[in-house]
Each structure stands twice: as C-alpha cells, then as structure tokens.
Amino acid sequence: MNPEDAQPSGRKDPQWDELVENFRKLDSNTPREPSAAERAAQLEKLFNTGPGAVRGPRDYVAEDTPEEFVPQEPAALGSGDPMLNLAWVGAAGGPLGLLLCVLFFRSAPGFIYFGLAIVALLGIVYLLKRLPTERDPGDDGAQV
C-alpha cells in the first residue's frame, strides 16, 4: 500500500456522495410501522361488516363473574386399595425387571426370569379384571 493511499484525500468523491444521498432518499420514503391502536382500528374496519355485526368470543366481557372453581383435595398416594397398588407395581415392575435382568444380569437363574414374567402377567390380569364390564346409563364419562 502506498503512503499516499493511506492518507485521506482532501477531494470529494462524487459517486460516494451520490450513493449516500440515494440512501437518505430511501429512508425518508420508507413507510413507518403502524402503532397497536392504528392496527386495531384497521382490523376493526376490515372485519366489521356493519352495525349488526356479530362480535367474536374475545370481544365478550362477562358482566358477572361466577365464583372461582376450587378442585377437591386429592387423596394421599398410599391411601388406595393395596391390591390395586400391588397390581400396578407388578404390571409395570415385572417387564422393567425383565429388561434390567436381560441387560445387566444375563447369568440370572431361570426362576428369576420366570418369576418376573409371572408377576407381570398377574398384575396385568388383575388390572384387566377390575375394569368395569357394564356402562352406567346415567354416566356420560365426563369428569371435571
């Protein structure tokens, strides 16, 4: 690089000045972003079909608020039917125990594999037997 090029020259560059002036013109002609109130007014005008227009669900403001829903206190975890809890442990723990034995304890005796399979099957059978066999005619199945 020449020392002459390192020092800025005292003369103006007409092409550069023209580019800068073009950018200034572009900035002055750019439309601005509408505010939230202006946008809401535009949308209201766009979607309002007349004086009898139906309002949407978000436009509705409740005049009287019903009392707040308070759910019932859930039962403690261990307070259920012990056989049901045991069946769930067997139905979930049996296959998990089999998987862990296959992965980490391959030389386990056969009665462990057999026992875990029986525990899993008994838990699943007990849970299936507890399922209701008839529908209650007054119950539509919905619960809050």
Q: Which labels suit this protein?
A:
144 residues, mainly alpha, 5 helices, elongated
Q: Write down the overall geometry.
A: elongated
- Radius of gyration, in Å, reads 38 Å
Q: Count the E strands.
A: 0
What is the SS-derived class?
Answer: mainly alpha
Mean pLDDT: 81
Q: What kind of sheet is the major sheet?
A: none
Low-confidence stretches: none
State the end-to-end distance.
80 Å
Summed up, the helix count is: 5
Portion in strands: under 5%
The run of helices and strands is HHHHH
Helix content: 40-55%
Give me a quick take on this structure:
With 144 residues, the protein is an all-alpha fold.
Describe this structure as you would to a colleague.
With 144 residues, the protein is mostly helical. 53% of the residues lie in helices and 0% in strands. It is built from five helices and no strands. Helix 4 runs antiparallel to helix 5. It is elongated. It starts with a helix and ends in a 14-residue tail after the last helix.
Topology, pairings included?
Elements: H1 3-6, H2 14-29, H3 36-47, H4 82-104, H5 110-130
Helix pairs in contact: 4-5
